[in-house]
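INFO  loader      accepted 1 record
INFO  loader      residues=137
INFO  predictor   begin
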Amino acid sequence: MKGLSLAVTMTLLAAVPAIAQENAPIQPNNWVPVSDSILFGLGRLENGDRFIEKDSLEYYYDVWPFSAQVGNQIDIIVESEDFDSMVALFSLTEDGTVFEAVNNNINSETTDSLISVDVMRDSEFIVVVVPVEAEEQ
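INFO  predictor   done
INFO  writer      dumping tokens
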């Protein structure tokens, strides 16, 4: 299977409301403050992590929660030497989980991912990182 199919992407998006309701192992303390406005996180996808199953393949993923306020800009960069990443951003509102953005590759020269959005309302957010190919775990 080459590349993340639309079906896997839609499965990931459909799973997010359930992901948002689970608390463990979401650990906000995985973020390390670099400055007042920059958080740094170091993660690893491995057996035992949460996963989405699609077509008998397991796509492991990590979830990173944080808060942001109106006027903030969110820039999320996912870099990996081990796998081609996809990153998705969701906000958690009173009405439920809202899809904000998704990215697979910054450009044609890299497999790293980038999301950049302006925050339009105070909210809790979650970042979901998943490999594009299940075999790459």
